């Protein structure tokens, strides 16, 4: 995007809506409708099996297929997803990390096929491809949880992609360094800036050290680095954060990497504003939150986002409908086309107040960057748990301030009285629901795909992939060959799992406590936990489990921290567990309650599997409680299936949740109420 320096009106940013669900066909229909409404870019949401490298018929994919995004299992699905959408003229953002190389290969292959069908040179078409693969695996270990491989091999996949795209797809951003998810799990503005820059340094150093890019072209590598950030409702501070990002990136790329071209040093970022900051209580208030958060990344011209996607007002309730997404798009269009925002130079230049805040964030970020670099860089700070512990601690402090009323959330901890919302009058129809038949169809389709392809070609392609992974040869060509042969997402990932192994990141829970929480309420619950344990003759034990593929672990981590601080012995094994693994741990540890955390919408499949598993193991007397984004109708179904309690985002007082869990344990053990 050009950045005019005269009084000409600036060009609007790329406008996207994060979208995709059910199937490639239904998502394609959604994309076409959104483009017809004036959306200028696509933002593809992939489902969790696709993100974590599983086919729809894998055990861990149960209940997750098509829920939080579109399932793409092979080249056939990618063809369907972009049917009728010429990729040479598209601007596509793909939220994909561990399997980014695979999805990019499918995308490039479809672009080649489109060119060949039109009789044009596919090399020219591929050279025009514009967009982004998110591909920031560092933040996956810290927040989102859709990692697969250990840090070293993951960084190799990123390095190979960067080197290949710079040479072959020069307009493509091979990575979005993602501070977005860091904020969602508690990062302060200083941490958000610092840890993003540490990730960028790790990637640039790895590419440089690989020797795959000539020194004279390293500026092209820096120029294709892009960022994906978050913007909270403290929009003045957030705007200052973006100016700090811009200044610090310019300094690092100039001084550390010797980039002399100012255009190559430009901080290029897209944004989605804070989704986890949206509230279930009085959700209509989310509209003004979203608008204010959008201002944070658009007001300052020198630090303005060049791509924006906004969540819908009802995302704390469930999956938004097309109309809800349209409303979010219209917010952007009103700001860009009706206001005079794009007609002026930066309106904050020269403000001492703004500059002081920017300088404060930069100073704090530099100190934290130095701390991480002294450890050995971002990868080491992931492996030793430092960055994860810092963010779990920050989020614990943030939640403490909300519970204490020090931070006001309108409609949640203040101004709670409300009229019934006409926006929710439709009940379950007020959100999008995914027909369970979508998963059955995907499972059937993957079986049919495997039966119709050339099995010999698939085997040869996978063998070549394994051999390449064992060498230091760039993996992109071998991956492209797999895409053309009809290899599936699960098969590509499984082949690399054989070579690279898998990884379980530190949870960050062990070193954190809810500091400042020793108030009357917490003390009372501690007494209840202790007294109940004495009546049962042992310390109360709670298992916190994350079934399925949902990697949003911050809720589970905060529950684990608060449970431990109230006196529970806590068993928390991290993310991505099968129902059988959770049941086995509950039985082996002899826990008094199982708490399941799910944000992906798979609760109606994953939770009953655990409840039935406990019964089958002779442990049906262990109560199960659930936390997550669970619509009221689904909560009733879970309670009828044997779940003792369901907690949703409106239940923000975690100490009160602990008190309720003590009641659940007493009820399950026939104890008189305390």
Automatic annotation (TrEMBL):
Domain B12-binding as annotated: residue spans: 539-668
Keywords for the protein's UniProt record, in alphabetical order: Cobalamin, Cobalt, Isomerase, Metal-binding
Source organism superkingdom: Bacteria
Cofactor requirement: adenosylcob(III)alamin
Family named by the database record: Belongs to the methylmalonyl-CoA mutase family.
Subunit: Heterodimer of an alpha and a beta chain.
Name the UniProt record assigns to this protein: Protein meaA
Organism: Actinokineospora guangxiensis
């Amino acid at each position: 995007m050009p950045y005019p320096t005269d009084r000409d009106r600036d060009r609007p940013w790329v406008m996207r809506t994060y979208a995709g669900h059910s199937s490639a066909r239904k998502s394609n229909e959604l994309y076409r409708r959104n483009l017809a409404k004036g959306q200028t870019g696509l933002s593809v949401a992939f489902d969790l099996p696709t993100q974590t490298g599983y086919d729809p018929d894998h055990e861990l994919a149960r209940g997750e297929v098509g829920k939080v995004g579109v399932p793409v299992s092979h080249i056939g699905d990618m063809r369907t997803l972009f049917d009728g959408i010429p990729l040479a003229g598209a601007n596509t953002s793909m939220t994909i990390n561990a399997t980014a190389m695979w999805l990019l290969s499918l995308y490039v292959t479809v672009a080649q096929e489109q060119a060949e069908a039109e009789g044009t040179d596919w090399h020219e078409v591929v050279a025009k491809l514009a967009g982004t693969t998110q591909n920031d695996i560092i933040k996956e270990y810290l927040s989102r949880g859709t990692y697969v491989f250990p840090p070293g091999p993951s960084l190799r996949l990123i390095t190979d992609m960067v080197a290949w795209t710079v040479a072959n797809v020069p307009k493509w951003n091979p990575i979005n360094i993602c501070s977005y998810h860091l904020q969602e799990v508690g990062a302060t503005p200083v941490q958000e800036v610092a840890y993003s820059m540490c990730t960028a340094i790790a990637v640039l150093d790895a590419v440089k050290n690989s020797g795959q890019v000539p020194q004279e072209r390293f500026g092209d590598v820096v120029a294709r680095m892009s960022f994906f950030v978050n913007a909270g409702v403290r929009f003045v501070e957030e705007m200052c954060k973006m100016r700090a990002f811009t200044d610090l990136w310019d300094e690092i790329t100039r001084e550390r990497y010797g980039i002399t071209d100012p255009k190559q040093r430009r901080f290029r970022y897209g944004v989605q504003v804070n989704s986890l900051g949206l509230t279930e209580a009085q959700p209509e208030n989310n509209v003004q939150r979203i608008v204010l958060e959008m201002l944070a990344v658009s007001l300052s011209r020198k630090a303005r986002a060049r791509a924006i996607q906004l969540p819908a007002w009802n995302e704390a309730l469930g999956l938004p409908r097309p109309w809800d997404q349209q409303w979010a798009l219209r917010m952007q269009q009103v700001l860009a086309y009706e206001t005079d925002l794009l007609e002026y130079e930066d309106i904050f230049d020269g403000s001492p107040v703004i500059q002081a805040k920017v300088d404060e964030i930069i100073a704090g970020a530099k100190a934290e960057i130095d701390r991480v670099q002294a450890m050995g860089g971002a990868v080491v700070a992931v492996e030793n748990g430092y960055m994860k512990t810092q963010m779990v601690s920050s989020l614990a402090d943030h939640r403490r301030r909300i519970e204490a009323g020090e931070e006001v959330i309108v409609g949640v901890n203040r101004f709670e009285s409300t009229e019934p919302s006409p926006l929710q009058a439709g009940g379950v129809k007020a959100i999008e629901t995914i027909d369970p038949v979508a998963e059955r169809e995907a499972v059937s389709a993957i079986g049919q795909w495997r039966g119709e392809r050339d099995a010999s070609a698939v085997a040869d392609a996978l063998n070549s992939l394994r051999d390449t992974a064992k060498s230091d040869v760039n993996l992109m060509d071998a991956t492209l060959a797999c895409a053309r042969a009809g290899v599936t997402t699960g098969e590509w990932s499984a082949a690399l799992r054989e070579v690279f192994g898998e990884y379980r990141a530190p949870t960050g829970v062990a070193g954190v406590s809810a500091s400042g929480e020793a108030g009357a309420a917490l003390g009372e619950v501690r007494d209840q936990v202790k007294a109940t344990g004495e009546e049962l003759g042992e310390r109360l034990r709670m298992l916190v489990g994350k079934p399925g593929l949902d990697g949003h672990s911050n809720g589970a981590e905060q529950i684990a921290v608060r449970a431990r601080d109230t006196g529970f012995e806590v068993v928390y094994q991290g993310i991505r567990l099968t129902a059988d693994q959770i049941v086995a741990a509950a039985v082996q540890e002899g826990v008094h309650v199982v708490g399941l955390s799910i944000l992906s919408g798979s609760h109606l499949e994953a939770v009953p599997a655990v409840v039935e598993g406990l019964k089958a193991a002779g442990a049906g007397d262990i109560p199960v409680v659930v936390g997550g984004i669970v619509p009221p109708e689904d909560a009733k179904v879970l309670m009828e299936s044997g779940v003792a309690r369901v907690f949703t985002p409106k239940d923000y007082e975690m100490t009160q949740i602990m008190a309720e869990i003590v009641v659940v344990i007493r009820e399950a053990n026939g104890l008189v109420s305390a």
